[in-house]
Design goal:
Radius of gyration: 25 Å
Order of helices and strands: EEEHEEEEHHHEHEHEEHHEEEEEEEEEE
Number of domains: 2
Number of helices: 8
CATH superfamily of the largest domain: P-loop containing nucleotide triphosphate hydrolases
Largest sheet: 6 strands, mixed
CATH architecture of the largest domain: 3-Layer(aba) Sandwich
Strand content: 35-45%
Strand order of the largest sheet: 7-8-9-3-10-11
Number of strands: 21
Structural class: alpha+beta
Distance between the termini: 38 Å
Helix content: 10-25%
């Protein structure tokens, strides 16, 4: 278990003071994988480095298991080598002059463990990551995926309580990155090791995580399960950053709560959607709807489809293999819609859009 409370870390420049981490709090349950997701510069890597002990926060508290490793109030700061963590860096930090065995064994050598124990532990962890038989291979002769596994093995060889992964897949090509997502998830489940993962890749976070925290400008804006973050965003930034979304501004006419509510939009009329109970009638809101939650009709929809129908024209259709990525002009707006690849509307064709009411979500309107 990892618990972080009220964490703050700033960096001084000649002209200003940058709050890289600004009051961050979260808790990772035992054996779960928790992802800090956000754009570059949002503070996610600095937060991880604070958990690792590579940065010293100004205020707050960090607890790993039942051990406080940092507390500004109690003046506690446990050095990195005493925190029972394993860490994989973005660059892997594999030593090119060493073999696979020597790279993985290095943390144990530093601790002056007995040779027999080192051989046994290295063999065990190489088996776990699928590198048995490559002990004597020089590091430069490894593929990108193999180097990533070596970095994982080195992080695990000390049998840490916590695993920290900082953008570990960013240096791999797209196909290998997708394969390694599943391997890391399977490994984490096999070992039941509490894991803090950092990435800017939304698909990576959705595929790997038990819980996701979305960060911006040093703050956490939302925490939830992947399905909650994607399907029920709590603000426009989360809806926009995690996946694609279309947005319609309006005001609440019928509040929602436990049932679907109604938002009156200036450009597209009434939109039936999910409205959180915290948004009362008259509140200015933005309705978010994902491209895959919009159904396209080339003729007028059947009578049973009666809510959230818009009329537009096709601007662009891009074939993406498993779907068509369409841009549709609806009034002054451009909607993104994903359709079945066998439905290929023509440029300039008039079409009807049905926005699934269950999948439309109202969030507080933000000044942009």
């Amino acid at each position: 278990m990892i618990r972080v409370e009220g964490l703050r870390k700033a960096f001084e420049t000649e002209r200003s003071r940058l709050a890289a981490v600004d009051g961050v709090s979260f808790e990772i349950p035992e054996g779960r994988i928790f992802t800090l997701l956000g754009p570059s510069g949002c503070g996610k890597t600095t937060t991880m480095r604070c958990v690792a002990g590579l940065e010293k926060p100004e205020t707050g508290e960090i607890v790993i298991g039942d051990q406080p490793v940092f507390s500004s109030a109690r003046r506690v700061f446990v050095p990195p080598n005493k925190r029972a963590i394993g860490m994989v860096f973005q660059s892997y930090a594999i030593w090119p002059h060493m073999t696979v065995f020597d790279n993985v064994a290095f943390p144990l050598v530093v601790e002056k463990r007995p040779r027999a124990e080192i051989r046994e532990r290295v063999a065990d962890v190489l088996k776990i990551v699928g590198l048995s038989g490559l002990e004597d291979r020089p590091a430069p002769r490894l593929s990108g995926g193999q180097q990533q596994r070596v970095a994982l093995a080195r992080a695990l060889v000390k049998r840490p309580r916590v695993l920290l992964l900082d953008e570990p897949l960013s240096n791999l090509d797209a196909k290998l990155r997708e394969e390694m997502r599943f391997e890391i998830r399977q490994l984490q489940r096999q070992l039941r090791i509490t894991t803090l993962y950092v990435t800017h890749d939304q698909g990576e976070a959705l595929a790997l995580s038990d819980l996701i925290a979305v960060m911006r400008a040093g703050k956490i804006l939302a925490v939830g399960k992947p399905q909650e973050i994607y399907n029920r965003p709590t603000n426009r930034f989360v809806a926009d950053f995690v996946g694609l979304a279309n947005f319609l501004d309006g005001r609440v006419v019928e509040p929602g709560g436990d049932v679907l509510g109604l938002v009156e939009t200036a450009a597209h009329g009434p939109i039936r959607c999910t409205i959180p109970a915290t948004l009362p009638a008259g509140e200015a809101v933005t309705v978010s709807v994902r491209p895959e939650h919009i159904r396209l009709f080339r003729e007028a929809p059947p009578p049973e489809v009666k809510d959230n129908i818009l009329v537009g024209s096709v601007k662009v259709v891009s074939f993406m293999g498993e779907f068509n990525d369409c841009q549709l002009a609806v009034g002054e707006m451009t909607f993104r819609v994903r359709t079945d690849p066998f439905l290929r509307p023509r440029r300039g064709e008039q079409v009807y859009l049905h926005l699934d009411p269950e999948s439309c979500v109202a969030v507080p309107r933000e000044d942009r």
